[in-house]
C-alpha cells in the first residue's frame, strides 16, 4: 500500500511515505514549528517519490496522547489531506507506536505527559500483539512494574528518573523515546487499525487538563 504517515505529538515532526517497496522519511526536532513545516515537508516527500497525494491509499497519523496542540495539528492536516484527495484516514495511538519500536516481549510504555505525569500502557508485542491495559495517565510514583515485563519504552523514563527506579536496571530500556512515522506505517500494515472517513477521525487525549495552576506548579517544584 501507498501510505503517508505523520506525527506531531512531541517536539519532533515525523513523516514517512511508503511507495512500493521504498520508504522516504523525515524525522527531525522542529520545536513548535509543526504547523509551518509539515505541509512543505509532505510536498517534498511526494515530489521525491514521484507520486501525487491522490495516488496514495490513505493517511496515517498519531492520534495521541501527546501534546494537545500537536495532536490537533496532526489530525487537522491528516483530515485536510484526506478530504482533498478522497482518502481514508488511519489513526493509531502514540503509545502503540512506542511499544512497536521496543521489540518483542512484554513492554511497559511510559510517555511524558508533562505536569509531573506520564501516559502509560502495557503491551505484548510480537506475533501475538496485544495491548494488555488501557492507556492511562498517572504520576510517576503511581506506576508499578507489572509481572512479566521485559522491556521499557518511552521518554517518561528519561523525564522522571524516579519512575521504577528500583527495577529499571533489571530491564531493557528501548532507545526509541518518541513516536516515529515509519513505525506507524508498519502498524497500519498489520490491519489492526480501521481506515475511516476523515470526518470520523478521533483524537485520543486521555487527559483533558492542559496545564497546571500556579499553586500546582509551586507544589510540583517543592517535591
UniProtKB/TrEMBL annotation:
GO molecular function, one term: transferase activity
UniProt domain Gcp-like: residue ranges: 28-126
GO biological process terms on file: tRNA threonylcarbamoyladenosine modification
GO cellular component, one term: cytosol
Source domain of life: Bacteria
Gene3D superfamilies cross-referenced by the UniProt entry: 3.30.420.40
Keywords annotated in UniProt: Transferase
Signal peptide limits: none
Matches recorded under InterPro entries: ATPase_NBD (IPR043129), Gcp-like_dom (IPR000905), T6A_TsaB (IPR022496)
This protein's name: tRNA (Adenosine(37)-N6)-threonylcarbamoyltransferase complex dimerization subunit type 1 TsaB
Gene: tsaB
Amino acid at each position: 500500500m501507498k501510505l503517508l504517515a505523520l506525527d506531531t505529538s512531541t517536539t519532533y515532526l515525523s513523516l514517512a511515505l511508503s511507495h512500493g517497496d521504498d520508504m522516504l522519511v523525515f524525522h527531525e526536532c522542529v520545536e513548535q514549528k509543526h504547523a509551518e513545516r509539515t505541509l512543505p515537508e509532505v510536498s517534498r516527500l511526494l515530489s521525491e517519490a514521484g507520486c501525487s497525494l491522490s495516488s496514495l491509499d490513505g493517511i496515517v497519523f498519531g492520534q495521541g496522547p501527546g501534546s494537545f496542540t500537536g495532536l490537533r495539528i496532526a489530525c487537522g492536516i491528516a483530515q485536510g489531506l484526506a478530504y482533498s484527495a478522497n482518502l481514508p484516514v488511519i489513526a493509531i495511538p502514540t503509545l502503540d507506536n512506542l511499544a512497536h519500536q521496543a521489540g518483542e516481549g512484554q513492554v511497559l510504555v511510559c510517555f511524558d505527559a508533562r505536569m509531573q505525569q506520564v501516559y502509560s500502557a502495557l503491551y505484548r508485542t510480537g506475533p501475538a500483539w496485544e495491548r494488555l491495559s488501557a492507556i492511562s495517565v498517572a504520576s510517576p510514583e503511581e506506576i508499578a512494574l507489572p509481572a512479566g515485563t521485559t522491556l521499557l519504552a518511552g521518554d517518561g523514563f528519561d523525564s522522571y528518573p524516579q519512575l521504577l527506579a528500583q527495577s529499571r536496571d533489571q530491564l531493557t530500556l528501548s532507545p526509541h523515546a518518541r513516536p516515529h512515522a515509519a513505525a506507524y506505517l508498519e502498524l497500519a500494515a498489520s490491519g489492526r487499525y480501521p481506515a475511516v472517513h476523515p470526518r470520523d477521525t478521533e483524537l485520543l487525549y486521555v487527559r483533558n487538563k492542559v496545564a497546571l495552576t500556579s499553586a500546582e506548579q509551586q507544589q510540583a517544584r517543592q517535591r
